[in-house]
Design brief:
This protein is an all-alpha fold. It folds into 2 domains: 10-99, Alpha Horseshoe (Serine Threonine Protein Phosphatase 5, Tetratricopeptide repeat); 102-169 and 183-240, Serine Threonine Protein Phosphatase 5, Tetratricopeptide repeat, CATH 1.25.40. The protein has 12 helices and no strands. The protein has helices spanning 4-12, 16-29, 34-46, 50-63, 68-80, 84-97, 102-114, 118-131, 136-148, 152-166, 208-212, 222-236. The chain starts with a helix and ends with a helix. The model is unreliable at 178-186, 197-221 and 231-240 (pLDDT under 50). Residues 162-204 are annotated as: Disordered. InterPro entries: TPR-like_helical_dom_sf (IPR011990), TPR_rpt (IPR019734), Ycf3 (IPR050498).
Length: 240
């Protein structure tokens, strides 16, 4: 019989169909096991099966209505379903339950950025940075929002601070060739798990594929966050 470790391994390798089969089998024997529901919900959301994913997260939250992590994951799926008011309310609830965790502010800031509340996003990133002044990801993501608002000097300071925290040194580029088109703005370096590898949308809609395909979820471990942030910088560069 397949075990949870095998399912998680397949999930991390992007073999979602195989991973889903394992978790479906495991849940047949343990239908209310939270860890199994959590991973299956994330797999389903990565596959674009959002209604089914929401059912799993609904069960998790019903079983533990005070678990901020379950609530936050559910909020991501609600956002993907374009139920943004509900998603924001859930992130508010997660923050109220876990107010001393700066990640709750940065998560809500991420959603506010996605739904167009740019000043609200900056306010939340400011709070996250106040609580954890060594968090390069929040500085980086705040810089992106400041750039959207046209705050060029402020965004440069945020980007520079993020670079300094992870020890990233941009390479000097000398060229006599005419300047090329400006680089595409760097995507946010912290992305909720369910937002990765979403199916492409119609051209008239928001395309998650283009936005998420180069980024991965940064875990709470500082070394992992710094390593991933450096990778993003080296691959995409930073718009000045």
């Amino acid at each position: 019989m397949s075990d949870i470790n095998q399912g998680i391994s397949l999930y991390k390798e992007g073999k979602f169909e195989e991973a889903l089969e394992i978790f479906n089998q495991l849940l047949t024997n343990s239908p209310q096991q939270p860890l199994l529901l959590l991973h299956r919900g994330r797999i389903l959301s990565r596959m674009g099966k959002l209604d089914a994913a929401l059912e799993d997260f609904d069960l998790l939250v019903q079983a533990d209505n005070y678990n901020a992590d379950f609530i936050s994951d559910r909020a991501v799926v609600l956002h993907l379903l374009k139920r943004n008011e509900e998603a924001l309310a859930e992130l508010d609830r997660a923050l109220n339950l876990d107010p001393n965790n700066p990640y709750r502010y940065s998560s809500r800031a991420f959603l506010k950025d996605r739904i167009g509340d740019l000043k609200g996003a900056i306010a939340d990133y400011d709070k996250a940075i106040e609580m954890d002044p060594e968090d390069a990801v929040s500085y980086n993501n705040r810089g992106i929002v400041e750039e959207k608002l046209g705050y060029k000097e402020r965004s440069k300071k945020s980007f520079d601070k993020a670079d300094n925290l992870v020890g990233y040194q941009p390479k000097e580029q000398k060229s006599t060739n005419p300047p090329k088109d400006p680089p595409t703005p760097k995507p946010a370096a912290e992305t909720p798990e369910q937002l990765k590898n979403q199916p492409a949308k119609a051209s008239s809609e928001l395309s998650f594929t283009n936005y998420w395909k180069t980024v991965g979820r940064v875990l709470s471990d500082k070394n992992t966050r710094a390593e991933f942030f450096t990778f993003i910088q080296s691959k995409l560069g930073k718009k000045k």
